[in-house]
Structure formats: C-alpha cells, structure tokens
From TrEMBL, chain A:
One of its GO terms (molecular function) is 2-oxobutyrate synthase activity. SUPFAM superfamilies: Thiamin diphosphate-binding fold (THDP-binding). Residues 81-243 form the Transketolase N-terminal domain. This is 2-oxoacid oxidoreductase (ferredoxin). Its cofactor is thiamine diphosphate. Gene3D superfamilies: 3.40.50.970. It comes from Caldisphaera lagunensis (strain DSM 15908 / JCM 11604 / ANMR 0165 / IC-154). Heterodimer composed of an alpha and a beta subunit. Belongs to the transketolase family.
TrEMBL record, chain B:
Residues 8-172 form the Transketolase-like pyrimidine-binding domain. Pfam families: Transket_pyr, Transketolase_C. This is 2-oxoacid oxidoreductase (ferredoxin). Its EC number is 1.2.7.11. PANTHER family: PYRUVATE DEHYDROGENASE E1 COMPONENT, TRANSKETOLASE-LIKE PYRIMIDINE-BINDING DOMAIN-CONTAINING PROTEIN. Belongs to the transketolase family. Heterodimer composed of an alpha and a beta subunit. Coiled coil: none annotated. The keyword Secreted does not apply.
Length: 255, 315
C-alpha cells in the first residue's frame, strides 16, 4: 500500500552514516549550548513563560534553521518553518536573536503592547513568521494550503510544521492530517514535539496520545520516531528527505 | 399562502460566476468541504479540476487550508453552507481576519433558504458573527445578478470577504448591466415617510411592503444594503434624515444583525425611531417550502406593513 508502515524507527539507534564534511553538527551543538543559556536568561526575565515547551522545542528549531533550511538551499528547495505551538515563542525569539534576525535587546520588549515580539508570534511582524499563531490545532491545515499552493505554482518548496503533543487533542489536527495524505501533499513535514506534557500535566493523564506514530501511519504518513537530540534529528531529517509521494512526520521524544 | 416570485437560484448564479472568474483569473482556487453538488461549485470542479480542492467534511480545515493557499499567492474561494462555516469562526477570526489574508468565504443556504433541513441548517447568526471581525468585508447580494457581480467584486477586492447567499429563493431585481461596488448600496425606491433598509431575498419582500404602504398613504424609501461592511453610510443618513421611521428587514436574528448595526450607527447621529424586523431571537424550523417559513416568522409583506403602520401611527 505504500502507507508508511515500513518506516523504521531510529529511536535509540546509533547513527549509521557520516553526517557532514564541515562540522555542521559540532557547530550546531555549540550554538545549542549558547542558545540554551540565552533562553534560560530570557525565561527568567519573562517569568518562565511556557518555559518547558520552549526548552523541548529548542533542538528542533535549531536543527531546522541551521541544518534543514541551509541544506534545502543547496538542493534548490525553499524551506520554511511554522511553529504551530506558538506559545513556545521564547525559544523562537531567542534563536532569531542569535541569528541576528532581531536585535538581542529587542527581547526585552517581549509581550509589551507595541512590540513585534507578541507572546504568540504574529504574521508579518518578524522575518520568517508566515502567519499568526496562538490558537492550537491550526498550523497543519495552513501548512497544507501553503504546500499545495507551491505545487500548483510549480515551486520547489517544503514546509515544516512543529506541533505540540498536547496540541494533538484538537480535532482540526486530524482533519488536516487526513487532508495531507488525501491530497498527496508530500512537501510537508510535521514535527511533533513529544515532550510528554500539556498545560495541566502529563499528556497520558489528560488525554491519551499513544501511539502517535501508529496514528500518523494509519492516516497514511511516513512516520519516524526520534530522540530529542540534534544528531538524531539531523539523521531523521535526511531520512525523510528521501521519501517522495507521502506526507512525512517526525515524532521527537524528550527524555 | 403568500405569493412572491422568489424562485431564482442564488447557488446556480454563484456556480456560473465562479466558472467565469476562474477563466479570467488563474490564481482562483475553489475550496470545498464535500458540498459541491449543493453549492454548485461542481461547475468549477468540472471546468478546472486542478484548481478545485475538496478537504472533505472538515470546515475548520477548509478555512485553514484556504488561509495557506492565500499565503501561497492564490485567491482561494471557500464555499460551504453558511451555518457550517460558523463552525470555523475561530479559524476565520484567528487566522484570516487577524492576518488580513486574501481569502473569500461564501456561505450558501443562509437564512431560512434551507427550509427543509430545519434549525440545524438555517444560519440566522452569520452576519452578526462575521461583521464584528476587524478587517472583514461582508456582502449579501439580493438577487442572482448581484450575486454574480459581487463574486467578481469580491475577487478583485484585496483582503478577507464573506458573502452570504441563499439557496433557490432569489428574486429578480436587477438587469444584467447593473453594477455593484463594495461600500455602496442601491436606492430602489425613494419616498418621505419611512425608510426601509434590507438585503438578500428580503429586498423583494420589502418592495412589496412599500407597495402595500403606498396604498395606505405612506411614501417610503427602500435601500438594498448589499454591502454590509463597509456600508453606504452616506446614503443611509441621507434617506434616514428625511424619514420619520426607519425599518431594517432581514432574514437574520434581530440580535446582532444589520438592524442592530444601523440602530447603533443612527443613535449617535439622528433622533429617529428604528424598528428591527427579522427572526426574534429564535432558531429556525423545518418547513416544506420557503414561503411557509416566511409566514411562520411573520415576515410576509402584509405582516410587516401592518406592524409598521401601527408603529408609525404611534409616533
């Protein structure tokens, strides 16, 4: 059937191929250490606003920005990132500051009325933020539309959309997961930040999520589970880049 | 039973207009939630299969997907029953309105037009829900000609637009040459005593109300307020100024509808009595035909004429 059931989970496996000639991995790890410090300083100033969600998404964001996007440029693919779980904005803003997309001092304006740095990122205010988020469950539908428009326009474009595991409670997620497969949107990549927590506590105590991988697979997606680790993420991103004809998902497990 | 000529098809007019705009504008993509046979977007689907997308029975996804198409440079037109589009009100607000995306939303089967399906299907709240959203334009054509012309107009307009139409309950009011602009209105009749403001199929009922009032010695004006947001403030104030009574007649809940909008507009400008005529804070109900519902909700020309006469005499 080609429905992704033969996707091999690479969780806990030793990376089996050489990553990069230019020490990209080492550079990203180094940046991650710095980003972690910056994020923790920032979170202290903003009363730990969605701190846990921001910390768990940091590896994902760094790997996408510093590995997946540049690699796409090399391949002639224009790649964009959507943070559907917009409440993890402190991580996003920290990285944008590190990448000099915004001034580091601007972080001090976070969540003030005239700031570009709204609590939940707003479209058009900051480079790279395609649309406003804040309401959960909507990112994948919108990403599907962007990816589909790119196909209609014959543009070589890929969209990565980062979803929270708690966010999967939203019904619209399952509407859009079904749409991706039905419309053969294979230029989309859903990344689930499987940190195991949602607002009120552990996810499985609030609404059972498992098996997220089996659910995505049942909806026709090529799905891979990985540890929340930069090296595993890089390997997984390379792996799913080879998959054509199916929407692809990475379930990124913390702990 | 009351006799009115409300037998033309809004949705057929829509279906044909979408094909015409599809021929002219290659960026137009029609997005459907498995109602293309009912909304007549099937015409577009047959003509342009590559620019027609069905996301299945998923209205929230319909709106999100359309938002994405707009971000990708397309002009998406999401067409579904008005009632079930309201299921995606939060998506409409948080994505399309907030980001001012160039998405066109067309709600069919609005008001009482889906008479047989009953209260679950009869959208009597949609104007209220959408007009309060910043950045949104709202239009409600009264007949098949204005439906076609406003489809072209909404596609030319940059930004979010909601169009409200009925099913097969359209009157024939305008000639094919008539033009319609967002923010404008049509003065169909001009008089002195009473100003009637209406939109959608109720414009035809209002024309009959004016005729009946004339027989009782009242001279009335009638505005077809096909553009609800923005609306033609100048024309409303001009005709309201010379009238003693203003009535808004709509196929919508009187709470939050155009009646409320006009009352609130006039309250700070003109001391005039305003009467809101529509569905009195209730849901719809099943019926075997449209006019049966018009009678049930006391919206026949005779009902309205009698009500207005009593109010006018008490002024």
């Amino acid at each position: 059937m080609g429905r992704g059931h033969d996707a091999q989970p690479i969780l806990n496996k030793v990376p089996s191929f050489v990553l990069n000639p230019e020490n990209v991995y080492e550079k990203i790890v180094e940046k991650k250490t710095l980003a972690n410090e910056f994020l923790n300083d920032f979170l202290k100033k903003i009363n730990n606003y969605h701190g846990d969600s921001s910390r768990s998404v940091l590896n994902i964001l760094i790997t996408l920005y510093d590995y997946w996007i540049p690699k796409g440029i090399g391949l002639g693919i224009s790649r964009s990132i959507i943070l559907s779980k917009g409440h993890a904005s402190p991580a996003l803003y920290t990285l944008l500051a590190l990448n000099k997309e915004i001034d580091y001092d601007e972080l001090d304006t976070f969540a003030t009325p005239n700031s570009r740095l709204q609590s939940h990122p707003e479209g058009g205010k900051i480079p790279g933020i395609l649309f406003s988020t804040g309401s959960l469950g909507q990112g994948l539908s919108i990403a599907n539309g962007i990816a589909y428009a790119a196909k209609l326009n014959n543009e070589n474009k890929e969209i990565a959309v980062i979803l929270g595991d708690g966010e999967l409670d939203e019904g619209q997620i399952w509407e859009s997961i079904s749409t991706s497969y039905s419309l053969k949107i294979d230029n989309i990549l859903a990344i689930v930040d499987r940190n195991g927590f949602q607002l009120s506590g552990p996810t499985e105590e609030i609404k059972i999520k498992e098996s997220i991988k089996k659910k995505f697979e049942a909806f026709g997606w090529y799905t891979v589970e990985v540890k929340n680790d930069i090296k595993e993420l890089m390997i997984a991103l390379d792996l799913v880049s080879e998959i054509k004809g199916l929407p692809r998902a990475l379930i990124v497990k913390s702990g | 039973m009351v006799k009115m000529n409300l037998n033309y098809s809004y949705r057929e007019s829509l279906g044909k207009a979408l094909v015409k705009i599809g021929e002219k504008k290659k960026e137009v993509v029609v997005v459907d939630s498995d109602v293309s046979k009912s909304t007549y977007t099937k015409y577009f689907a047959e003509k342009f299969p590559n620019r027609f997308v069905s996301v299945g029975i998923s209205e929230q996804d319909l709106i999100g997907f359309s938002a994405g198409l707009a971000l990708g440079g397309k002009i998406p037109i999401a067409v579904a029953f008005s009632m079930f589009l309201m299921r995606a009100w939060e998506q409409i607000r948080n994505t399309i309105a907030r980001d001012k995306l160039n998405v066109k939303i067309i709600g069919t089967h609005s008001g009482l037009s889906d008479f047989l399906d009953g209260s679950s299907h009869q959208a009597l709240e949609d104007i209220s829900l959408i007009r309060i959203l910043p950045n949104f334009t709202v239009v409600a054509p009264s007949d098949i000609v204005s439906t076609e012309k406003l489809v072209y107009e909404m596609v030319d307009h940059i930004g979010p637009v909601y169009m409200r139409i009925g099913r097969d309950n359209s009157p024939k009011i305008y000639d094919d040459q008539e033009e319609f602009k967002i923010g404008k209105s049509k003065t169909l009749i001009e008089g002195d005593d009473i100003l009637i403001i209406s939109y959608g199929p109720m414009v035809e009922i209002s024309r009959e109300v004016v005729n009946l009032l004339r027989k009782k010695g009242f001279s009335s004006s009638l505005i077809d307020l096909y553009s609800i947001k923005p609306f033609d403030e100048q024309n409303v104030i001009k005709l309201a100024y010379k009238s003693n009574l203003i009535a808004i007649i709509e196929e919508h809940n009187v709470n939050g509808g155009v009646g409320d909008m006009i009352s609130s507009f006039l309250s700070s400008r003109l001391p005039r009595k305003v009467v809101k005529i529509g569905i009195e804070d209730s849901f719809g109900t099943s019926a075997r035909n449209y006019l049966e519902l018009i009678e049930f909700f006391k919206l026949t020309p005779k009902n309205i004429e009698e009500r207005l006469k009593v109010i006018y005499d008490e002024l």
